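Progress report, Aim 2. The chain analyzed during this reporting quarter is listed below.
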Amino acid sequence: MMYKVIKEFGCAQKGDILHENEEGLFELNMECDCPDCYSSRSICISSDIANTLATAGYLEEFEETVSMKCEDRLVAVMNFVDEKIEQYTADHEALTAQYDEGDVPPCVKVEADTVYFNLIKILNKIKEIIHE
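Predicted structure tokens for the chain:
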């Protein structure tokens, strides 16, 4: 059995999944997937506490079979978004270096900055929605 967080509490965030371990406790272990972040979140609760939190509207029972396929898709989307952020950042840094050397006119640099800013903004919003 698993529970999905539908209302934040403690360090649990909306969308987190608590898995039942061998001792019958429900646990969550999350590590930040940001490139410059070295943090993690962890929680472990008894089945009684999980039931109380479910009754109070913080958790809901979670079906593994159908939802894991969906979760796999979300992981694939997240990986794609991360790859694109890395690619666009590298491309933008290369163009910035060319601009600094005088090989690119200012109008091209301004347009590239605008496109880069908007793409990264959209990709980060997609990541935020996936983590909800």
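Residues 15 and 131 are 6 Å apart (CA to CA). The mean pLDDT is 86. These observations will guide the mutagenesis work planned for the next reporting period.
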